Structures are given as C-alpha cells and as structure tokens.
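Q: Structure for this?
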Amino acid sequence: DTGVSQDPRHKITKRGQNVTFRCDPISEHNRLYWYRQTLGQGPEFLTYFQNEAQLEKSRLLSDRFSAERPKGSFSTLEIQRTEQGDSAMYLCASSKFGQGGNTEAFFGQGTRLTVV
Amino acid sequence: DQQVKQNSPSLSVQEGRISILNCDYTNSMFDYFLWYKKYPAEGPTFLISISSIKDKNEDGRFTVFLNKSAKHLSLHIVPSQPGDSAVYFCAASRGRAGSYQLTFGKGTKLSVIP
C-alpha cells in the first residue's frame, strides 16, 4: 500500500495523559499536513511541513500540541495533558510541491482520539 | 465565521439520476477549489478540482462548475450510483502553488437509492 498511513487508528486516553500519533506520507511527497475533524464538521487545518520545516501553524494548535517531521519523511503529532475537547479524528495528508505547483492532498485514514 | 459553506447536510437521489451538491464561499482570496469524498471510518478521498481561471472541469461522471461572481460552486454526478453514497466535502485554498491550507465545508451526505 503506497498511500498515507496513520498509526494508531484509534486511541482512548484518560484526561491529562499525553498521546502521540504517527503519519507516514506517500514516499515522494515533500509536503505533509495535519488536520483535525470533529463530529459534524469538515476537517480543520492544524499545521504543515515542507520536508522537515514546519511552515505554517493554525491558531487551533495550542501550546499543548507539537508536531515534528525530523527527517522530512514521517511525522508525529503529540498532544500533552489531553482534554476532553481534544477528542476528534486527526487526519494526516501529503502532497508533492515542485516547479509545477502543488498536487492535490491525499489523506490517510485518520487516528480517532477519545479522551475520557 | 465559516468561509466555506455547504448548506445541505444531506441529499437523497435515485440511482441513475443526477446528483447536484452545492458549495458557497465568502473569501474572495480563494482561487482553487476541490471536492473530496469520505466514507465512514476512512480519510477523505480527492475527487475533482477546479482553478478560479476556469468555470468548468469534467472527469468522467463528475463535473464541477464554478461561478466566481456568485462565489458558488457545484458538483454534478451523472449518473448517480449506489457506490457514490458518501459524505462530500467542498474545500478551498489560496493559490495552488501556495501553502495549500484547505478550508473545508461541513459536508453533504449523499445517499443514492437503488
């Protein structure tokens, strides 16, 4: 399977705990995005990387959230001191940016986080 | 403030007929528009896109129309098939060569009845 891969698919955690999600993009894609989707809403942009550089962060990304893409390949999204309001589907997407512009973003299946 | 609006939460269509999904946007800086389809427990799947320099883009059974003056776009599916039943998201971005930060609508759930 050469699509965007996310791990885990589901995570249940207690309020106050830290969680980390992983995303493996399509191998030739240099851009990687994180989105969050809550019930009844469309995905909301959180942040994106071009190679290993984090180029943009949404106001939605509070100080408790941190994302990394250390080698320009896979990325991790960590949420510290989780709150019930963090319960959502966390989606990763990737695209290829080059001289011709940016390809469409391809999404992974998401990680569903439930904070109890 | 919702910059991309899909005012119909759901739509039911008979198999073989046309499905028309609508989307309105408020930000005049948006110049690239996409439609994604989402099945339950899966991530969104890219369907079709259109640049603001065009007013129509067609791909098989799917056609997207853009009316810039009305800030409105629509997705036509002809003929509709039961496998098209899914949630459809309209998305917009500023510049295809830019950051590609997508702003999504809330989605329209399409049910195609056999």
